[in-house]
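chain and backbone:
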Amino acid sequence: MWKFHYEFKHSLREDIMDRRNFFKTSLCGLPLLYTRFPEANTKTEVYPEIKGKIITVKGAISKAKMGFTLSHEHVLVDFTGAGQYDPSKWNKKEVENIMQPYLEEVRGLGCDTMIDCTPEFLGRDPALLYALSVRTGLNILVPTGYYGAMNNKFLPDNVISENAANLASQWISEFHNGIGNTGIKPGFIKIGVDNQSLSDIHLKLVESAAITHAATGMVIASHTGGSVPAFEQLRILNKHKVAPSALIWVHSQDEKDDSMRERAARLGTWISLDGVNEENTGDYINRLEFLRQRSLLHKAIVSHDAGWYTPGKPGGGEIRGYTAIFRVLIPALRNAGFSESDIRQIFVKNPSEAFAIRKRMS
């Protein structure tokens, strides 16, 4: 393993561009429309209207309104791959009607915000998420970015051949101008790399994410797995003077060595434990207890990585609900001696800090 040294600064100096009336609310229940920003570039600063806020599919909210958060879930996932990708394959109304009860169920259990971690060419559908957010009252976030895991199956040829700066400019443009013609803006960056030393393509995705973070303040949620690609990503971020706190190490539970999570957390990386279900809560309690004993619980976020409607399967296929954390994990955490303050730290405070728009520079 490599040794990293990061110089943390107690304050972040930013020259903020003054911009008024950032959001415009639409009429007749249509998605929010946003004012158009100047042409995006990597030197654009975070505007004061959104700095420190959470960007949902319905617009910016304060961190205080984020509430109890499931930080890694999916509403719809299409596994066909970029070569056969076609969003017209699914009927939005059918997806809404099938998925709405699952979202209402978890909303009734106390969830306020759901982070949908589905990137482009895997089923990202901001208009669908907007409709479900309106129907259920859940805050929902949608990402920008590309998913390179699974041997680049979900990367179209033009993404593979593009350079990092040009990829970043596309993601920055979505932050400024919205996704497609929806006017809906991403609230974070989602990338995916394979669980091994980073390939050239995956190095490029991480570099693009670093450039995008430096320009926008969106956090980087990277499907990673083990510690080898995790620490390689931190090295790339450091090259771009982006702090470890800009990275969410997604699926960190796949790393068997607890000390690697501890090491990353001490640098400031967010430790994302995804994949909770009714049968494995003991594993998650052990990992959380390890962090708690080392005063690192403030770097942990936990979710199910559950759902989802699968296009092409009758009724959307087998859908796993978003309730195990409420019905199994939280009661088990209480029985294991975790306080209400600990639980709030994991599911309320930590996600609001991780997903707040804020440039984290080293």
Remarks:
- The first strand starts at residue 23 and ends at 24.
- Residues 92-108 form the longest helix (17 residues).
